[in-house]
Amino acid sequence: MQIIAGKFRGKRLEWVSNATTRPTTNRVKENIFNVLSSMGADFNRVLVLFAGGGQMGLECYSRGATEILFNDTSPEARKVIQKNCASLNIPPFPLNDLDYMKCLEKYKDRVFDIVFLDPPFADLSAAPNAARYLRENGMLAKNAVIVAETESDDMQFPGFDVRVKTYGRARIYFLKLCK
Description:
This protein is α/β, with parallel strands linked by helices. The protein contains five helices and seven strands; from the N terminus they run H-E-H-E-H-E-H-E-H-E-E-E. Helix 2 (55-62) links the parallel strand 1 and strand 2.
């Protein structure tokens, strides 16, 4: 795993290697960020709700994000995020170890430009529930994009314009608030 673009382009990142965490491949990550750019996403305030090793948030930082909030319940994942921040010589960003809904409740006064939702594939309700909470609580900026990664090809996201890309087993849902 490595940073694809920006000021840390080419820098290698550690990743979590366990049965429940699967890092997004460089090819898929590059495609995700190409779509985000084509959608006019602002890489400023970022929430990475199921952070794994933190690569999606750190990719945003490399591209100019100023505020990143990480959350992952795995102690191993949080250690990897801390190591990755240290290896890039950047100060650690807020790093939570909360259930995803508790994390959203804790930060419901915040507004985000990009939100990454990459829950364990077996949890089919996490991404739709998190997206609904973000929408209903006004936590999304005007042009915000939610990126939800799952295996399911029939996820429903009421209140959002949805664009779907498939990469092998992974389906990436790009969500923008309906106008």
